[in-house]
Design goal:
Layout (H helix, E strand, L loop, with lengths): L28 H22 L2 E4 L4 E4 L6 H7 L5 H14 L5 H11 L11 H12 L3 H17 L4
Antiparallel strand pairs: 1-2
Length: 159
């Protein structure tokens, strides 16, 4: 008579070649918005420190720097709204609500920048190129640039 005895040992549990990975973290919307705002503030600071704009008129001489002049102080010490600034702000206000697509935003920024660089009023000349860069970016970037341009118009006395 033959007795069969199983002499095999149980195998250890299978181990994975790679340890399990942690779940991917998603960026929260507020993180993205905070990053965009920080980027534009940094860009404005760098641009302001390179190009301090000096405005001279018959009665006053005013030097503004983006890093040192607050928006309210800019309105108080800067010159009144000039014609190119008024035209740029009017074009912006008239076209903002209809600029829903990226191409419409770029077209509006181009129209505004026909006048904005010629303005000597406050920060309108500074904010024109920023509006153009924002129009060619994401919707959130456009909204930040549009708000900054609108604030520059209000600071210069546009109504």
């Amino acid at each position: 008579m033959c007795i069969y005895v199983d002499m095999t040992l149980p195998l250890p549990p299978k181990r994975h070649a790679m340890p399990p990975t942690a779940p991917k973290r998603r960026l929260k919307p507020w993180m993205i918005i905070a990053g965009v705002i920080a980027f534009f503030l940094l860009a404005m600071t760098i641009n302001g420190s390179k190009n301090g704009s000096t405005t001279t008129s018959a009665t006053t001489t005013t030097t503004t720097h983006a890093t040192t002049v607050a928006p309210a102080a800019s309105a108080a010490t800067g010159p009144k709204l000039d014609s190119p600034g008024r035209f740029a702000c009017d074009d912006f206000a008239n076209g903002y609500s209809s600029a829903q697509t990226k191409q419409a935003r770029v077209d509006l920024a181009n129209k505004v920048n026909q006048w904005a660089p010629k303005s000597k009023s406050g920060r309108i000349a500074e904010m024109g190129p920023m509006l153009g860069r924002g129009a060619d970016s994401s919707l959130a970037t456009w909204q930040i640039a549009a708000d900054a341009f609108a604030q520059a118009c209000f600071d210069a006395g546009w109504k």
